[in-house]
Each structure stands twice: as structure tokens, then as C-alpha cells.
Design goal:
Elements: H1 3-16, H2 21-30, E1 32-36, E2 41-43, E3 51-57, E4 59-65, E5 71-78, E6 82-85, H3 87-91, E7 97-101, E8 105-111, H4 112-117, H5 123-149, H6 152-162, H7 164-167, H8 172-179, H9 183-193
Antiparallel strand pairs: 1-8, 2-7, 3-6, 3-8, 4-5, 4-7
Helix pairs in contact: 8-9
Length: about 190
């Protein structure tokens, strides 16, 4: 792992926790550096893995896979963001979604259970874990409210405003799936607005 990658991770961690060097060293030991090509799976929808990730570069998507093979995007995560796949640990279920790179992506990945074990040793690492879960919950609540209250056009404009650095990088068919509309509807909305 390069020094700049370690610093990038530390900068992210320090946004949520006033972690000290000794704790950061323990945390860093859990993580492994991996690189994925576009369309590589980080987590397959049928895998029973609970991990925590830090995106150093690139872009990933979380998606649900229906029995008929149709995919529904649930989230996009880009560089300098932490995320997790923890359904197995929290719900006792196989993760109901897959995680896939949609650009060449370099991540730090750790086992979520090992990450969680550090909570006992460090309230600052426990805070980091809590802030990660809070961000996920807030994101889910905002998205649910958007689907219940907003039109497709409003969901599109809100996503573009809230995620300007992601908006241009996400393939249209993935964005349409995330917004709960067809590619044709997305194209029509985009043409109306721009």
C-alpha cells in the first residue's frame, strides 16, 4: 500500500473520529488493497460475506438481483467513501445484493467482524463504525422518501444536484435503474431538462 493511499484513508477516518495513530495502525492492519476492473464483482449477490470497504479510486454500485435476472441499483459509492456489506452479520441472511465495479476501482477491504472487534478496544473506532452505519441509514431514508414523494423528474434533478461528481460517470442504464425508471424515460427527462 502506498503512503498516499494510507493518508487518503486516514483523512477519511479523521472526518468521523479523532483516532490516534496507534488505533489507526490497528485498523489499517485489517485492510487489504485490491483492484477491480470494470464489471468485476467485489461481492456476488449470493456470497455470504460481511466486509467494510474504503474506495481509494473508482466507482462501485450496489444492486439487487431478481430471480428473473433483472438488476436494480440501490447505491453508488465513489472514491473517499466508506461502505459495507453486513447483512449476514446483522440479519443472519445472505447479502441480498451484489457489489460491482463500474470503473477500474481500487479499494481497501476488511472483514466486518474483525473491524467490529476493534470497537471493544477503541471508542474512537466504535464511533467510526457508528458514523458509517448512520450515513447508510440516512441515505436509505432519503432515498425512500424520494421514491414515495417525488416524481421521476425530481429524483433525477435531485441526484444530479446532490452527486455532481458521480452524475457524469454513471452509465445511463445504471442511473435509470437507480431512479426506478426505464432508459427511455431517463432520456426523455434529460432532453426536457437540458
Amino acid at each position: 500500500m502506498e503512503k498516499s493511499q494510507i493518508q487518503q484513508f486516514l483523512n477519511c477516518v479523521k472526518q468521523d473520529s479523532n483516532i490516534i495513530q496507534e488505533e489507526f495502525t490497528s485498523l489499517l492492519k485489517l485492510f487489504e488493497l485490491r483492484t477491480y476492473k470494470n464489471k468485476d464483482h467485489i461481492i456476488d449477490p449470493t456470497e455470504e460475506k460481511s466486509n467494510v470497504f474504503f474506495i481509494l479510486s473508482g466507482l462501485i454500485r450496489y444492486y439487487y438481483l431478481a430471480e428473473d435476472g433483472k438488476e436494480w441499483n440501490k447505491a453508488f459509492i465513489a472514491e473517499d467513501m466508506m461502505c459495507t456489506s453486513f447483512s449476514k452479520d446483522f440479519l443472519g441472511l445472505v447479502s441480498p445484493y451484489g457489489i460491482q465495479a463500474i470503473e477500474k476501482t481500487t479499494i481497501l477491504i476488511a472483514n466486518f467482524s474483525e473491524f467490529e472487534m476493534l470497537y471493544e478496544k477503541s471508542p474512537r473506532i466504535e464511533r467510526l463504525g457508528r458514523k458509517l452505519i448512520e450515513r447508510i441509514l440516512i441515505s436509505k431514508m432519503k432515498r425512500e422518501r424520494s421514491f414515495l414523494q417525488n416524481s421521476a423528474k425530481m429524483r433525477y434533478t435531485d441526484f444530479a444536484k446532490e452527486n455532481p461528481r458521480l452524475f457524469q460517470r454513471i452509465p445511463q442504464y445504471h442511473l435509470a435503474s437507480y431512479l426506478g425508471i426505464t432508459e427511455a424515460s431517463l432520456s426523455r427527462i434529460s432532453n426536457e431538462l437540458y
